[in-house]
Amino acid sequence: MELIIVTGMSGAGKSETIHAMEDLGYYCVDNIPPQLILPFVELLNMESKFTKAALVSDVRVGEFFDDLVVAIENMETKKINFKILFLEADDQVLISRYKASRRKHPLSPTGRIEDGIKKEREKLAPIKEKASYTMDTTHTTAKELRESLKTLFTDNREPNAFLLNITSFGFKYGICVDADLVFDVRFLPNPFYIKELKHLSGSDEEIREYVFSFPQANAFLKQLEEMLEFLIPFYINEGKSQLIIAIGCTGGRHRSVAISNKLYHDMKAGGYWASIEHRDIEKDTRK
Q: Is residue 60 scored above 90 in pLDDT?
């Protein structure tokens, strides 16, 4: 059976995630105490009709949550096949979501939301280190989250496949905090300053042709792909199942998008399992 343990920051999208996982055919349980995870999984394994399940365990279970690390270690000892999906978001975004929902933070029911978030990060730190997949939902809509989950957990992949998550972004909107590797392509000429090109994006043929008309763009991409070919086997040997590659330019609309798209298609053509996201492509649309 394929098992996904979903955890992470309150307000980062766990409820939306478990609904999406259910739509993908997973048997889902929300807010399960860590002590019940192992016996529940053993029960599911006895029923042949359950081939994949997703369980949410987070700080809502109160003092029971401290046993989640122990539960994970017990499953590792028993050689149970499972992955941990950790959901993350920026503090200010979490605060805004809490204020919009008018809900109290589970670790600070009578105090400030900021205090609850700080306590939660401390509690979750050892779990985050063990995460198989980390998703930052700071700039992600519910629809985009569902699409990412569909890519990550679609039925036509191998359960233990290594995922390349390629993301373009704009430095002016902040770096991708969950990225494993960050590359800056602001050394390339910027089509934003060309009147006929500025309103297009890196997904348009005109921008692709412009960016790759410069030899340094092709040389950079070639060396990046060679470096990934070298690194990926070592990441796999260390037990990593996902590599988040962030490529940034000034606004995240032109150069980073064109480079990310080409990297995505090249790696897919090379037999790698990959997903792509353009975080800021719609933001830098100034006239």
A: no
Which among 12, 8, 10, 15 is positioned nearest to 108, based on CA atoms?
10
Tokens 């990934």 belong to: 228
Distance CA 275, CA 19 (A): 21
- In order of 101, 116, 203, the CA distances from 10 in angstroms are 12, 9, 34
pLDDT at residue number 261: 96
**Residue 165 and residue 274: Cα distance in Å, rounded?**
6
Helix (H) / strand (E) element for 196: namely: none
| 3-class DSSP assignment, residue 246 | strand
Tokens of 261: 């798209």
Write down the domain spans for the chain: 2-153, 163-278
DSSP state of 212: T
Identify the DSSP state of 104: P
Distance CA 146, CA 19 (A): 9
Answer whether 28's CB lies under 8 Å from 22's CB.
yes
Compute the average pLDDT of residues 156-181. Answer: 82
Tell me what the mean pLDDT of segment 202-231 comes to. Answer: 96
**Looking at residue 81, what is its pLDDT?**
87
Rounded CA-CA distance 279/221 in Å is 20
CATH code that applies to domain 2-153: 3.40.50.300
pLDDT score at 287:
46
The answer to whether 35 and 85 have CB atoms below 8 angstroms apart is no
Give me the pLDDT at residue 163, please: 84
Q: Is the model's pLDDT at 157 over the cut of 70?
A: no
**pLDDT at residue number 217:** 97
Helices (H), the chain: 14-23, 34-46, 68-77, 91-101, 113-130, 142-153, 205-211, 215-237, 255-269
